[in-house]
Amino acid sequence: MLIQPYQESWVDDFNQIKTTIEALFLDLDINIHHVGSTSVRHLAAKSIIDIDISFGKNVEFETIKSGLETLDYYHNGDQGIKDREAFKRKKTNKKHLILDVIPHHLYVCPLHSQELKRHLAFRNYLTENEKERKQYEIIKYKIAKIANQDKKTYAQLKETQAKAFIEAVLVKVLRK
Predict the structure, then answer these.
(1) Less packed terminus of the chain by CB within 10 Å, N or C?
(2) Is residue 1 part of a domain?
(3) CA separation, residue 102 to residues 95, 153, 154 (Å)
(4) What is the per-residue pLDDT across 6-30, written as a single tens digit (0 to 9) for each?
């Protein structure tokens, strides 16, 4: 199944990845955030952990990039989203026991990033509002069914069919 009921293990998965990445950046003022649907208790999701690393003005992006490269990530650009840099795993013969086993998406954002603010605001809102969390879950299941459980089709449909719901929540939350 593409969309799964909420799994308690997603918190542990995130924490394993976070601990691994944090070990590289002990001296840096960064935060590692669990975002996306797997970060919202009781919300069904694709079993992929979404992670945002945020950094302030005293930290250089290149320092984070270089550190992530030592863990066999490569910078995949901003993918059309300002102030949100994507990182992907390199295909190598050596497999990391955590980073190559737990499916995840990794992004690096400056603290002023609007996308970071959107991720955190949406996560927090769904965490605190059961009615809207259930409504979003229904939308996700419906899209997965229409997509016939195909990941690429699901992602395309989510961009159109879930966008109105997400934007309505963000307008409500971010205008406060």
Answers:
(1) C
(2) no
(3) 11, 22, 21
(4) 999 999 999 999 999 999 999 999 9
CATH of the domain at 140: 3.30.460.10
Give per-residue pLDDT as tens, 74-121: 999 999 999 999 999 998 888 999 999 999 999 999 999 999 999 999
Total count of domains within the chain: 1
Residue 55 lies in a domain: yes
- How far is residue 105 from each of residues 32, 51, 122, measured CA to CA in Å? 12, 6, 17
**How far apart, in whole angstroms, are the C-alpha atoms of residue 159 and residue 165?**
11
pLDDT for res 176: 60
Query: Quick check: helix, strand or coil at residue 46?
Result: coil
pTM value? Answer: 0.94
C-alpha distance from residue 75 to each of 79, 84, 90, 108, 118 (Å):
10, 11, 10, 10, 22
| SS3 at position 105 | strand
Q: How far apart are CA 66 and CA 71, in angstroms?
A: 9
Is position 52 within any domain? yes
